[in-house]
Amino acid sequence: MNTPAPEQSPLGRNSAYVDRYDASLLFPLPRAPKRAEIGLAGEAPFFGADLWTAYELSWLNLRGKPQVALAHFMVPCETLNLVESKSLKLYLNSFNSTRFADAAAVQARLRTDLSEAVGRGADQPATVGVRLVLPAAFEREPMHSLDGLNLDRLDIECTQYQPAPGLLRATLGEAPVSEVLTSDLLKSNCLVTGQPDWGSVRIAYSGPQIDQERLLQYLVSFRNHNEFHEHCVERIFMDLWTHCQPIKLEVYARYTRRGGVDINPWRTSHPMALPKSVRTARQ
C-alpha cells in the first residue's frame, strides 16, 4: 500500500471549493511514521481520541432550504490514520449544495465516510463518533477554561523553542502526588504550511511530583516546532511518561479553530470517560 505523505495533501495548495458532496476529498494520513519518531513501534502506552468540532457544517433539505449544524467528531487514537484537516474542511464544504432528507442522513453519511478514511488499509473497520448539534441547542454549547492549576502564573525564563524533553524533572523516590496542571502557552506550527497553531493544554497525573517551572519551559519549547496537533500531544505524553515516570497520565489539548474546525487531541494511560467537549474562550 502506498503511504501518503503530508506534502501530498491539500495543505498549502490552491484548492477548488467543491459544493457538491464528494467523499474522495478526505485525505487520510497514517499515524505510524510520526509515532516511530517518538519511539512507538508497537502498541502505544495510551488510549484516547481526537475530538474535532466543525462550526461551519451546512446542507440543503429536500426543498432546497439551507440547514446548519455544529458537528462533534470522535476519532479513536487506535485508528490506522488521521484525517488531514484541510481535506476535512473541503469535504464538509461539499455538503453545502447537496440535498439530504434530514440531519440524521447527514450524520450517517459523515460517520460512514470518516470511518472509512481513518480505517483505510486496516484489517478491522474503524468507527468515528459523530454528533450533530442543531440550532435549537446552540445556546447549550458550553464555554469554559480548562480546569486545573495554571502554570502560566510562574515567572520563568524561556530560551528553548524546539521540544526539549531534557527540561523535564520529577522528584523520583518521594511520595506520589496527584495534580492537574494547565497552560494556555502551547504553540506549534503546521507541519506543511508553517502556520501557527495555538492551544491550551491540561495535564493530569499521579506519581512523582513534576517540577512545574520546568514543565512550563518544556511546553513553551514547542513554539517553533512543526508538527500536527495529534502528534504534538502524543510527543508531550511520551516525554512526560519517559522522563517523569508517572503512575497515571492524561494529556488533553484544545487548539484554536482554523477554517471553522478545531482539533482537540486527548491521550490517557488508563481507560476513562472522554473529557467533556467544552470549548475555551479562544476557540
Q: How would you describe this structure to a colleague?
A:
The structure is a single chain. This protein is 20% helix and 28% strand. By secondary structure, the chain is α+β, with helices and mostly antiparallel strands. The strands form two sheets. Strands 5-3-2-10-9-8-7-6 form an eight-stranded mixed β-sheet. The chain has a two-stranded antiparallel ribbon with strand order 1-4. Strand 2 (47-60) and strand 3 (66-76) form a beta hairpin. The chain is globular, with a radius of gyration of 19 Å.
Comma- or semicolon-separated keywords:
20% helix, alpha+beta, globular, single chain, 8-stranded mixed sheet, 283 residues
Which structural class fits the helix and strand makeup? alpha+beta
Main sheet overview: 8 strands, mixed
Instruction: Indicate the radius of gyration in whole angstroms.
Output: 19 Å
Strand content: 25-35%
Contiguous low-pLDDT stretches (5 residues minimum) are none
Distance between the termini: 37 Å
Query: Element order, helices and strands?
Result: EHEEEHHEEEEHHEE
The averaged pLDDT comes out at: 94
Shape: globular
Q: What's the total count of β strands? A: 10
Biggest sheet: strands side by side, in what order? 5-3-2-10-9-8-7-6
Helix content: 10-25%
Specify the number of helices: 5
